[in-house]
Amino acid sequence: MASSKMTLAFALLSGLLPLFPSAFGAVTCEELPKDLCAFAVSSESKRCLLESVHRGGGRTEYQCRTSEVEVEWRMRDWVETDECVWACGVSRDATGISSDALLEPEFVGKLCSAACYRNCPNIVDLYFNLAAGEGVFLPDLCAVHKVNPRRAMAELLSSGAAFGGAAAAAPTSY
């Protein structure tokens, strides 16, 4: 009886391992399935990215690759949860991530929501850096968006100087 319970437990654990590769501290982007690739970070603290590869006959296949973008060591071996993907309004099917999403009030609302901003540091870090590349300080964008989403978009479309620049090293709690 005990051996059958152990066999069942082992079978369940083995079935769940592909869903949580970070549980054992060894995320290799190239080994991740496409539906876990986007918003994952490898064991070497490099972001994983989903690439489309065009094959003959008009077929497109997707492969997970290791990017050259490094993140803080505390986020290594990270596979983003479905809850964070949903809360932040991102898609695991993303083959390219752009700061253009920061122009969409609905997206900024989800990104700046407490459910995302306080619980999903990997996604917030990614968009923090994208915003910084545009001269926008994400916490300031979130603060303005909370008060007046249209004003936030107008200021983002301007020089970005209204947000005080991107001098901070990491996002703060919103």
Q: What can you tell me about this protein's structure?
A:
40% of the residues lie in helices and 14% in strands. The chain is built from 8 helices and 4 strands, in the order ααββββαααααα. It has a two-stranded antiparallel ribbon. Strand 2 (46-54) and strand 3 form a beta hairpin. Helix 4 (105-111) packs across helix 7 and helix 7 packs across helix 8 (149-157).
Mind sketching the topology for me?
Layout (H helix, E strand, L loop, with lengths): L1 H15 L17 H4 L2 E2 L4 E9 L5 E11 L7 E2 L2 H7 L16 H7 L2 H4 L3 H13 L4 H10 L1 H9 L17
Helix pairs in contact: 4-7, 7-8
Pfam family, one: PAR1
Keywords: Signal
Protein name: PAR1 protein
Query: What pattern of helices and strands is seen along the backbone?
Result: HHEEEEHHHHHH
Strand content: 5-15%
Count the beta strands: 4
What is the gyration radius calculated from CA atoms? Answer: 19 Å
Low-confidence stretches: 6-24, 159-174
Main sheet record = 2 strands, antiparallel
Strand ordering within the main sheet: 1-4
Number of helices: 8
Q: Which quaternary structure do these chains form?
A: single chain
Estimate the global geometry from the Cα principal axes: globular
* Rounded average pLDDT: 80
**Helicity range:** 25-40%
Overall SS class: alpha+beta
Terminal CA distance: 52 Å
Number of domains: 2
Summarize the structure.
This protein has 174 residues and is an alpha+beta fold.
